[in-house]
Each structure stands twice: as C-alpha cells, then as structure tokens.
Amino acid sequence: MRAPLLDVSDLHVWFDLGGRGEVHAVRGIDFSVDEGERFGLVGESGCGKTTAILALMGLLPPNASVAGQVLLAGENVLARGEDSAAPHRWSEIAMVFQGAMNAFNPVRTIGEQIVEPMELHDVAEGRVAVLRARELLEVVGIPADRAARYPHEFSGGMRQRAAIAMALACNPKILLADEPTTALDVMVQAQILELLTALANDFGLALVLVTHDLPVVAQVCERAAVMYAGVIAELGPVDELYHDPRHPYTRLLFAATPDLYGDDEVVSIPGAPPRLDREPIGCPFAPRCDRAFAPCPTVTPRMLEVGTHHLAACHLNERVVEAVS
Amino acid sequence: MIAETSSSGTPLLEVEDLVVRYPVARGLVGTLQRRPKLQVHAVEGVSFTLRRGEMLALVGESGCGKTTTAQTVLRMLEPDRGTIRYRGQDISRLSSRRLRPLRRQIQIIYQDPYESLDPRFRVRSAVEEPLVIHRLGSREERRKEVAEALRLAGLDPPDLYLERYPHELSGGQRQRVAIAASLVLHPDVLVADEPVSMLDVSVRAGVLGILSELRAQGLGILMITHDLSTAARFADRIAVMYLGRIVEEGPAQHVVNNPQHPYTRALLSVVPKRDPRERTTPQILRGETPNPVRVPQGCRFHPRCPWMIEDCKSVDPALRRPAAATSPDHRAACIRV
C-alpha cells in the first residue's frame, strides 16, 4: 500500500494565555487522507478542528506550540517549524479560510489577487501567471474575462469560487476548506459543494472539509472524523458514522440535527463541552453522555478499531471487544 | 402567563398584500445625470395569517424579503401598501404613540444573542429592562415576572442565572435570556429571526423546543429562517418566499413532502440530508438569486425555472390551490400546477 498523501499522528496544539495558563486545544489526533479523497472534520465550535488544520498549514499564531507529526510527501512539516512548513504551504497543501470570500483586497482585481501567490512562490509570473489565473477561474466556474473585475462586482458565491481558485494557484495536492459554505444560501452552498467534489474527482485533489454541519459532510465526504474537546471521538466511513455510530457523541449529534424527512424527535445534548485550560479527566464527553458508566469519568478511553477503517474512543466498545475475545 | 384571547376565531396577525420598497441611492452624480430613480422591491404583495398556537416559518434565500416582511409586521419599517391587522385591528398606519401598547404584544428575538444582549447587563437587568421601559409592576412584581420568564425560557432554577453576565453564559443560554426578555411583557406574537442559526447544533433543538412549548401554550410564532430542515421539523406551516413574494404556502409536512412550486422543489432538493445513502441528485439552479431592483416580467421565477413555458414570461401567477395538493390549505403560485 502506498503511503497516504497526508498523515497526521499524535498532533497536539497548546495556546499560551500569557500568565492565565494555557489551553490544550488539540490533544493528540491521528488521521490520514489519500489522493482524491474527500475527508470531513466535523465538530462544534471550540472542538479544535480549525486549530488542527491551521497546524497542518504551519499558520498558528505565535502563542501556540505544536507537537506530533504531520507527514506531507514523506516529510514532517512540524520538524523544524517555519523552515519545514513553508516549502509545502500553498504548493502541496492549501487552505480556504473561513470567511475567505470576504477577505479579498477591495482595490485590486480578482485576477491580480490570484496571480500574487503564484509569483510569490515562483510557480509562474507575468503573462504566464495571468493566463493561469484565467484558467483557474474557468476551473471554478467563473468566466475567464471576469479576472479583470473587482471583488465588489462578484456575488458571495462567486467570491467563494474565486477564493478556491486562489487556494489552487500553486497547484496543491491537498485543499483544506474551513466552513466553506457556512455564510452561503443553500442553493449557492450546493454549487460550491458540487465544485469541491468535482475538484477531488477530476483532479485527484484531496479535500479536507472542516465544518460543524453534519449533513454537509454526510453528502460530500467519504470518511470523516468527529471531534470533541480537542480529540477525535470517532473516525470512519460517513455511512457507518450515521448508520452504526460507535461513539454516543456521534449518535447524539446526528439526533440533534433536524432532517428534512426525519421523523425522530430532534433532541439537544444537555450541558456544554469541558474547558480545555485544564486537562479533562476520563472521557471528555462523559458529563453529557447518556450511556456513561463506571470507567467513563476517570479513565480516558483508548481509540479502538470497531470496524474496517472505523475507530472510536469509547469504553462501550472496550466491553464489546472483551466480550468477543 | 399568556393572556386568553377574547375571540379565538380572529387570527393574531393578518397581513394582506404587503408591499415594501426601498429607494436605491443614486448618488450626487446619478441625481445630476437624472438617472431613473430605482427601487428595491423587497416585498411585493405578501399575505399571510398567523393564529394562536401556531408557528409559521417564512423561508427563503437571502434577499427574498423574509426579514423585511418581519420588520414591517413589527412596524420597524413602513409599508408602501397593504395592511397589517393585529387581532382584527389595522396597525399598519398607527402613530408610534398609539402603537406603543401594542409593541408589548408583538416581540422579536434576534439571530445573534452575542450582539442582542448588552455585555454590561446582568441577566436580571436584561430581562427586567422591558418592564422598566414600559413602567410595569412594582419592584417585587418585576422580580417575580423575571423569574417566571427565565423559567419559561428553560433557565431553571432562575436563581442560578439572575446575577450572571452574558459572557458567563453559553450561546444557547444567551438566546434563552433573549427569549426571556421578550416573554416578560406577556406578548402573544413572537417574531423569531433565525433564532438558532448562530448556535451550536447540539443546543439548537433545546431553543427550538422552548419556542415549540410557547406555541403550545397559545403564542403565535413567526419564524424567519433559511433552514428548511428546521422549518420542516418545528413549524406548523411553511411559506416559501422568492423575490419578495410567497410562492408556496401550506402545512409544513405537505409543503416538504409534496412540494408544488418548481422553486420549492429545487430548494428542497439541495438541502443536505443526514443519511449519506440519501445522496439524491440536487437540482441546482444556476446563477444567483436575481436582483430585486429588476424583477422579471411575468412569473418572477421564470428565468431560472426548469419548467418554464412561454406563458410564464407574461403571466404573473397568483397563489392558488394546486391540482396535486393533498391539503386544502396548500397553495402555490405557478400556472403549471
């Protein structure tokens, strides 16, 4: 088997709060993504999903410290800080930031702004770069002649397409998209999701879709990791996450999500996630879990293989495994 | 705590043929060049009723006029045409002085509880403020009202929350405080403008459950939302808006399971489902929602409609009962259904 395109193991991120302690925002996560794969990273606000992908990009703020391993094309991008992250950023791994569509420079044309990263990273320059920018716009579904237009002349959906084109400027193999459709209407959301899926299918681009929206992941991704309080609660094929969840948080999160045709009661999860300025003891979800039992409040659950490419960190599975063996 | 209606037959709200337009600024140059005065046709002939114990969801994409409709009902905006009746009384042209007692009856919950609550106010003061403004009750009575409103909003026991500041509360709790602050005046109509879209998924159902409970107690709730799944699961009726018009309206389950208007069909088809096996082919409409400054002739949806026929370019369809409707209250504005 070939090595995956992106291989993350035991990734940790701490934020130093300057005298007010530190927050352990990502507490040891493992996942990998293959070429052309569509992988989802789902979780609610504060679960560490955005922090995790910023770490992959080497774009964490100065008060953050990182540990673990992020293998990209066989090299650990975390090994030597900026020196090992910079060569990969944008050319191997690129990101569409949350709200990117509102972050264009208003006084420069869209085309100029797509050319800029190419020249910065010596991918192309001058006329070649301009031509490539026009090509990229076509790829994301914008007529090439719009390259000469300014951001305010674009609708929200068009600016999001342009933001994706910009991320693709240096020909990356992996695209990290942070809540790429959150502020968009459903019809425009469908267009953007269709585009992201097509980029993975047609160009072999690996997509990491970061979102709080489970149905979006269910429809777009093949595999997903459900994050909670800085760790991955469950990781597996999206079909199994929905039909055979092996972590109560996954099950309850689906149950809290209204579905157009669902007839089950929509129920919220009582309580709130733990604070991460002190290490949670035991399973972080235990206080909100409807299936918590003896070991949960004190013993941190291990990540167990519960199926083919399906992992979950829950003591309930431990019992099943013991019973079988 | 909800007042009994004198005549349960009269709807709480009756909106008839509402029209709201905004002028588009031409700028100095535009004025000097005598460019034509343009208008945003935000709401173009919207009619609906809201009864006691009913939740009506106004759904649609941004720019469809759903928020403008709600703000006009609240008389935060002046209608250009049409009437708004509250319990049979026309309030669309009441002076602000005569409107004031009615403002207690129709309350709004905003989208963002991080912005709608003053960070310097404790929960107690935030919920009590409307009573103070309307000069209602003694100090002791207000204290009781505040506690009761918090309880109704699911912040129980109230003592746990009274002295807290917004920053000490989660998003869901903040939204409940905002709900309590609107309930303290004993309204009978609540307008909820995207009440859960800023909240985490795991707590949304709780806040929507509170609204459901209030509806069961007799309040009328007008919910503005872009989220069809939420509307389908919590509202009694759904009105789908497109470019300032209601294009389809009816009991929620009928609109969702038996959509008639091609726009509703397209909209429903692009809503992501929870079940990965239900990967239906979304019927994606190309282009963006058209500009409400230049509303198309005939049916306003015809330029994007997959079912368009020649007549659609000239006939502006009215809401009527479609042939395939499964409920007598189901209406759609399309000449082909």
Descriptive overview:
The complex is a heterodimer of chains A (325) and B (337). With 325 residues, chain A is of the alpha/beta class. Helices cover 30% and strands 23% of the residues of chain A. Chain A has 10 helices and 12 strands. Chain A has helices spanning 49-57, 82-85, 110-120, 126-139, 156-167, 186-203, 214-220, 238-243, 248-255, 315-324, and strands at 6-16, 22-33, 38-42, 64-72, 75-76, 93-96, 174-178, 206-211, 223-228, 231-237, 304-307, 310-312. The longest helix of chain A is centred in the middle third of the chain and has 18 residues, at 186-203. Chain B is α/β, with parallel strands linked by helices and 337 residues long. Helices cover 30% and strands 20% of the residues of chain B. Chain B is built from 11 helices and 11 strands. In chain B, the strands form 2 sheets. Chain B has a 7-stranded mixed β-sheet with strand order 6-7-8-3-9-10-11, sandwiched between helices. A 4-stranded antiparallel β-sheet of chain B has the order 2-1-4-5, with helices on one face. Chain B is globular and about 70 Å long. The interface between A and B is large, with 42 and 41 residues.
